[in-house]
Amino acid sequence: MPEQSFKRLFTPVVLRGRTLRNRIVFGAHTANMAEEGLPTERHVGYYAERAIGGAGLVVVEPMPVHQAAVLTRGNFRPSDDSVIPHFRKITEAIKGNGAVAIQQLYHVGQHADPDNSFHAGWSPSGLPSYHDSDGSHRMTEAEIEETIDGFVQAARRCREAGFDGVEVWAAYHSMLDQFWTPWSNRRDDRWGGSLENRTRMSREVMTRIRKVCGEDFIVGLAINDEPEVEVALGREALAEIIALHDRDALMDYVTCGSGSYFDFYKIMPTFLYPEKLGADLASVLKSTVRHALVTAESHIRTPENAEGVLSEGRADLVSIVRGQIADPHLANKAAAGRAQDIRGCLSCNQMCWGRRSRDYWISCVINPSAGREWEWGGDRFTPSERPGNVLVVGGGPAGLEAARVAAERGHRVVLAEASDRLGGQFRLAGLQPRRAQILDLIDWYERQLARLQVDVRHGQYVEAEDVEREGADHVIVATGSLPPDGAFQRALPQYDAIPGGGSVLSAEAVMAREARPGKRILLLDDGGNWKGCGTAWRLAEDGHEVTLVTPDALVGKELQRMAADAPLRRALARLGVRFVTESAVTRWDGGSARIASLLDGTEQEIEADALVFAATSMAADSLSVELEARGIAFTAIGDCTAARQAAYAIHDGRKVALGL
């Protein structure tokens, strides 16, 4: 797409005396990379790469302003000046590469996590957490003042560390939002009741930050849109609150996200949600404020999304977070008229929120350098000192990444794929409803391989003698995995296959249209992930009557960490899919299945035209075995070593190619 298509996106804008080179924000999110509460080289590399990649404004992950606000293992150390020299490395890296550096300041209030803070949650009225089952402590006036000072001192540290400003977090029903919201603020003192009282804390925080940090210091505010939740603030109420802050010029910009602790799934919306979720609230505020700039964030994945929001006058800035995790050079590529070279985010949450939800530092399915920039030299490639001939066998995600990176580093690459199309089983995932972004990624790989002059050979099944004949300097085996031969269920390890002798179809065969099941489908999901759930969704959309059986307590168990399970279950329920949980199939005769409860052993019979089995695949390692027997050197990567998720295949491909 030509550069002029993003005219508005690449128009500079002034923010409190600092000129942003474009309107692309790398917004705040918990990267969870701190060690012992201190920023690390992992942080420096991570944020530097997005500044190198062209972002105009980089908002560093939130700093808890008080011990009660600590939420994750990788949070920064609150109330401690020892962080300042460490943060200075981050600000120098961001500003030295042309971006403006901001840090977010946060307090989660009643939604605290004592697992990491070992501190009671503090809140306006002592309501329970939506993070877990804990209660919270109703703050005294002294504790309110202590918290306000926590915000101010955190901002002072940011100033001393070289940040250009701070973003005060009042989004997602955090502490400041809890004070704003009548449902959670039931106080009858000067901190509750009237709008003036309920906004007193946020106005004091921002006023005192300005006094301590000076007139040239940027102060932003982050809020969220949650129109479907009755007790949350509506857009009209939020507009009134923001107008009150804007009246006194307390903030230089306001960022509009989506979701909250009431509906956590929309904070980092997956592909199950529409794009540009934050733009509606941003549009309301754009017509409300007189001083502040307005930033739209939440599921704005692409420069095209961003340009649309800006050109329609719905916002002044756009925050593209996961899009710049997936491709940190998104801004530069778009500015250079190379939008087709941007590696588009899949909106899957697998390695960003999926890792953060388990308290690891974040990464990315399609960009394994995310979080490893300091080790791998960013998302850029150093030419090999000894360019050679590389043979990659297998065109799934592992092989595609290995071939691409090897070619980027100057090697001459042959990629041999047995089928007539690239992508392997990953392509089948892209055929599930709303997952076409995977197909876009495969198309991106094809464009990159063509640009890099990789010799792609379709329909070439490779055996050991073919490898010998090729005579490559480096052989990479990425032959992937295959569906299991039988129907082994983890819940019934005594059986290698389901008793009864009925034919079982694999989810892969169904998605590839190699099998044509009848009307009534029994789908046995032994993985709790997209393989089973997405196949059930596809079948239901195609008009089949689907019963999904799982040994887990809920459908989509593995999708919980990606914040995708509940929206997925809602989609299946709307299509009439029946759920049978905590159960296993004890007999299948081809027309009827016996289903046993794993709780009490009771059984039921379900008639079906087909049994579709979604389970862990088996490594397709026959070529590896042959090569090893002949003493031919090779490196095996991806599923042919052990069947796993695509993230690990792409990681393997990147890592092996960097080592050539």
What is this structure, in a nutshell?
Helices cover 32% and strands 18% of the residues. With 660 residues, it is an alpha/beta fold. The two termini are 33 Å apart.
Characterise this structure.
With 660 residues, this protein is of the alpha/beta class. Helices cover 32% and strands 18% of the residues. The protein has 23 helices and 27 strands. The strands form seven sheets. It has an eight-stranded parallel barrel, surrounded by seven helices. Strands 15-14-13-16-27 form a five-stranded parallel beta sheet, covered by helices on one side. A five-stranded parallel beta sheet has the order 18-25-19-20-21. Helix 2 (84-95) crosses helix 4 (141-161). The protein is globular and about 75 Å long. The chain starts with 12 loop residues before the first strand and ends with a helix. 55% of the residues are buried. The mean pLDDT is 96.
Q: How are the secondary structure elements laid out?
A:
Elements: E1 13-15, E2 18-20, E3 24-26, H1 41-52, E4 57-64, H2 84-95, E5 100-106, H3 114-117, E6 121-123, E7 136-138, H4 141-161, E8 165-169, H5 175-180, H6 195-198, H7 200-213, E9 218-225, H8 235-247, E10 253-258, H9 279-286, E11 293-296, H10 303-311, E12 317-319, H11 322-326, H12 330-335, H13 353-356, H14 373-376, E13 389-393, H15 397-408, E14 412-416, H16 425-430, H17 436-451, E15 455-457, H18 464-470, E16 474-477, E17 481-482, E18 504-506, H19 507-511, E19 520-525, H20 530-541, E20 545-549, H21 565-574, E21 578-580, E22 583-588, E23 592-597, E24 603-607, E25 610-614, E26 618-619, H22 622-630, E27 635-636, H23 646-658
Parallel strand pairs: 3-4, 3-12, 4-5, 5-8, 6-7, 8-9, 9-10, 10-11, 11-12, 13-14, 13-16, 14-15, 16-27, 18-25, 19-20, 19-25, 20-21
Antiparallel strand pairs: 1-2, 17-26, 22-23, 23-24
Helix pairs in contact: 1-2, 2-4, 4-7, 15-17, 15-23
